[in-house]
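Quick one: Cation antiporter from Lutibaculum baratangense AMV1, structure tokens please.
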Amino acid sequence: MNLEGPVDGISRGNFDVGIRGLSLIAALFAFWLLLSGHYDTWLVSVGFVCSALVGAFMWRLKVLDQEGYPAGFLVGAVTYWPWLAWEIVKSALDVTKEILKPRLEISPTVVRVTASQKTSVGFTTYANSITLTPGTISTTVSFDDHTILVHALTREGADATAEGTMDRRVSRFESGL
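--- reply ---
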């Protein structure tokens, strides 16, 4: 029996997409309620209809997959995004200190790091996180050998990237922990 193909108009893939679509609509509606702050009947119903329309458009465009709506990453995001925000603040302060020194002591360094992520979303999150952190930028991303070429403003920044703390945090984010 083919679990991926249609069986009387229903397939395992459609069931997964249906659950993913409903959770997307619920998440969009909750986000809308949070940002709106208005809870009268008309506005709440408009918010729900808009959320349902976005869900329907995503279903129609066939982008309700793991990449288009990575619902499994929501749990890991609760711990990863605050950690990344703090890393960005720390790096911004380090870069500011380097720039404001009377004698500029930067040591531009390029290092190749290996990514341990198992999904394209995780790998892309890792490369983007490196770029978001001031003082480092992902210059080349290779999906073939799972490596990222990183340019760092200082040798210390390159060493910190190569050390792998961010890689481990992104892998935990990817696994939903």
